[in-house]
Amino acid sequence: MVLALLLLTGIALAYLMHLRDRARAERLAAGLAPLTRAMEAKYWVDEAYQDGIVEPLRAAGRGFFAIDRIIVDGIVNAFGWVPTMLGGSLRDTVQRGYLQGYAATMLFGIAVILLIIFL
């Protein structure tokens, strides 16, 4: 019953303010400027949400991204850097593409193994 009365009162006020006498609605809005401004700004809920939740989470995300890029990726890249440098040094010193060098190295290795076994 109370809700129906509030509903009808709201409809009547909307009719009077917006359809019948718009000038009166404009004067009322000018008289209640702070309340009108708060309602037009939707009580600044969007601004509070942006400043209180969205921006702090963005800042945290940028911080975590920097930590991931510098620390985590740095550790992973360091673990990849060691084998890369070792492989590069072996490639430059051992694998030259000369078959005679490979054969000589194998013969030298076999000679060392035989010396170890028989001595």
Shape: rod-shaped
- What is the radius of gyration computed over CA atoms, rounded to a whole number of angstroms? 41 Å
Structural class by secondary-structure content: mainly alpha
Supply the number of structural domains.
2
Question: In CATH terms, what is the fold-level topology of the largest domain?
Answer: Single alpha-helices involved in coiled-coils or other helix-helix interfaces
Q: Roughly how many Å apart are the termini?
A: 112 Å
% residues in beta strands: under 5%
Number of helices: 5
Average pLDDT confidence is: 89
Contiguous uncertain segments of 5+ residues: none
For the biggest sheet, the summary is: none
The run of helices and strands is: HHHHH
The CATH architecture of the largest domain can be named as Up-down Bundle
Q: Regarding CATH, which class of the largest domain?
A: Mainly Alpha
How does this structure look, described?
The protein has two domains: 1-38, no CATH class; 41-119, Up-down Bundle (Single alpha-helices involved in coiled-coils or other helix-helix interfaces), CATH 1.20.5. The protein is 89% helix and 0% strand. The protein has five helices and no strands. The protein has helices at 2-20, 22-31, 33-40, 45-93, 99-118. The mean pLDDT is 89.
List the helices and strands and how they pair.
Blueprint: H1 2-20, H2 22-31, H3 33-40, H4 45-93, H5 99-118
Helix pairs in contact: 1-2
What features would you highlight for this structure?
mainly alpha, Single alpha-helices involved in coiled-coils or other helix-helix interfaces, 2 domains, 89% helix
